[in-house]
Amino acid sequence: MKLIALIVALLINSHLSPGGWRSARGFYRYAAWLQARLMPLRGWNHAGGLALLLVPLLAPVALLQWSLGDALFGLPGLVLGIAALCFAFGGGETLETEVAAFTSAWRRGDEAAAAAALNDLSGGQAGEMPFEDMPEAAAGHLVLRARTRLFAPIFWFVLLGPLGAFGYRLAVLARGFGDCHDNAGPGYCARAGALVALLDWLPDRLMALALALAGHFGGAWGVWEQTAGEQAPRRLAETGLAALGIPRAGAPRDLTADAVADGHALLRRTLYVWLALVAAGVLLAIG
Length: 287
Prior knowledge:
The protein is mostly helical. It has twelve helices and no strands. The chain has helices spanning 2-13, 25-38, 47-68, 75-88, 95-107, 111-121, 134-160, 162-180, 186-214, 217-226, 232-243, 257-286. The radius of gyration is 20 Å and the shape is globular. Keywords: Membrane, Transmembrane, Transmembrane helix. It comes from Spiribacter insolitus.
């Protein structure tokens, strides 16, 4: 059922409109409401505040997942899994749309549109930079965005079912609330960032291995080992670029929008590798 849920959710996600029930607005309103009530009680700016934010949302999904079980040949569980995955894949435009927006803007020389598309790919984290440097930044952000919006949710879904995918998106939203609100509190922001970093630790490694298998294995593996001391997002992004055959940072790169399009194609092949591994796991479990 997990493999069927994955395939159906990926197909549905490619046709869903951005926003709606998957957007971050509802979660941010709930978080702001809870923060206003916990702050006077000193119950917000620490790990306890983060737990009070997430547990009430996770509990109903856990209860549903546990109670549905294999009822009605697993169909209710299948629907729950598809809904959890579609939620976990995010409420914005698809990666295909965001890549197309950047590559078309960069190729026609529209710096403002390319910068806006790059900002979308980075989740609002891209700063100002020269036009010629944008493809390199976009290719790196694309790898990280695919990790957060595809690979990590799939990993946690395969491991924990709908609760895993739903919980990962909630953790990402909780971190996003801290990034978007100056008064979120340093203790809360630090705990939310640490939680997402913990949840990304194993998916990062499996994704790096799959990127190497789908691209230039030697280059990707070498960069992964050489960047062991760097921050996790930069390490994964550099590994993704190396899987494309792009030299490490510091060497001349001179990338164009073609590198971003090639990166998207590489990520699609990497996703196929993951799905093949899930299918193999299902067959082994049946056997």
